[in-house]
Structures are given as structure tokens and as C-alpha cells.
Design a protein that fits this description.
three-stranded parallel beta sheet; 7 helices
Length: 191
């Protein structure tokens, strides 16, 4: 296990899909550095296995499962939406619709699961110059950052770290009464 920069997530378990690259990889690192046990879920099996083995050497599976089944663990589900969940888009209709659906799922699931002390929220990042987004856009990371910087009302560039920090906050006890929320991390783009 790596040394923790903060222990706000000690004992928590994070299952992160898409966690071998981009924002997901940064979330895995940030949550592990804050004390969470990270479960890697990704279609890149070998890379996911390598990351999981390096992060989970002391994972107390049995104790966690017994506590979960006994109802002794509060939970937090954090979904990834997008700034597109709060806007319309004439070119990426399928993507925009899917992110609106994530937001609807979060709002509905939060009402149903709250009775079990499970919070459900989502983070909606603006454009981050990840390898995937730059490849789809046909630009280098530097070009992507320059292009996407202009979409923010703040100075600077939105990075995967900013999104991971928001996820870490929602996973922490500091957010224990936040439920059904869509946390925009977009520098003011959608607002």
C-alpha cells in the first residue's frame, strides 16, 4: 500500500470502473492515497490486474464482507456523468442522452438507497484532455488543454486530479449528508 496523503477514506472501499487510464486511473490513485481500498474494474484486464495487485496487498476482504452483510457499513455510490448532463448538444446526442440518464439514475437511486444509509451522487466533469478525448478529437494533449481551457470561466486547465478530488470529497464523511447531488467540476462551463 502507498503512504496516505490523508486518512479521510481509511477503511472505505472504492470500486472504480474504467480505472486503468485517464480520470478513472487518477481517481484510483487519489482514493488509494487517501486510505481507501481500491477495486479496479476495467476491460483492460492486464493493466487492471497490475494496478490492483500493487494497491491491494493488505486488503481485509473477509472483515469487510462480514461488516457489510451485518449492515455496519454506510455506503456511497459516485457515478460519473458529464457537464453534458446539464446541457443539450446537437452533435453528440447519444453521449448527451446517456449522461442525462446517469443523472436521473443518481437522483432516483439516492431516494431509494438513502433508507439503507447509502448515498448516491455524481460528478460531472467538463472536458479533460485525457488520452481518449484527445484521440477522439484528433488533437495532442497540449492542443486539447489549450482548446478546453477556453471553455472554463476560471483560469487554468481542468485536470483529472480536480475530478478525482471531487470524488474523494463525495466519498468522505465530510459529505455524509449530501445525497442525490450532481457536482459539476467544469470551471463554470455548464453554469
Amino acid at each position: 500500500m502507498t503512504s496516505h496523503t490523508s486518512n479521510k477514506l481509511d477503511g472505505k472501499v472504492a470500486v472504480i470502473t474504467g480505472s486503468t487510464s485517464g480520470i478513472g486511473e487518477e481517481m484510483a490513485c487519489q482514493l488509494a492515497n487517501r486510505g481507501a481500498y481500491v477495486v479496479i474494474a476495467d476491460i483492460q484486464d492486464k493493466k487492471g490486474h497490475d494496478i490492483a495487485m500493487s494497491r491491494m496487498s493488505n486488503w481485509p476482504w473477509k472483515a469487510f464482507l462480514l461488516s457489510m452483510f451485518a449492515g455496519a457499513i454506510k455506503g456511497s455510490i459516485i457515478c460519473m456523468a458529464s457537464a453534458a448532463a446539464s446541457t443539450g448538444n446537437e452533435t453528440y446526442i447519444d453521449y448527451t442522452m446517456s449522461k442525462h440518464a446517469v443523472l436521473g439514475l443518481v437522483r432516483s437511486a439516492s431516494k431509494q438507497l438513502g433508507a439503507y444509509s447509502i448515498r448516491v451522487n455524481c460528478v460531472s466533469p467538463g472536458a479533460v484532455a485525457t488520452t481518449l478525448l484527445c484521440r477522439v478529437s484528433g488533437v495532442s494533449q497540449e492542443e486539447g488543454e489549450r482548446i478546453y481551457e477556453s471553455t472554463s470561466s476560471l483560469k487554468g486547465v481542468l485536470k483529472a486530479k480536480h475530478v478525482a478530488d471531487a470524488v474523494a470529497f463525495l466519498a468522505s464523511e465530510e459529505a455524509e449528508f449530501i445525497n442525490g447531488h450532481n457536482l459539476a467540476v467544469d470551471g463554470g462551463w455548464a453554469g
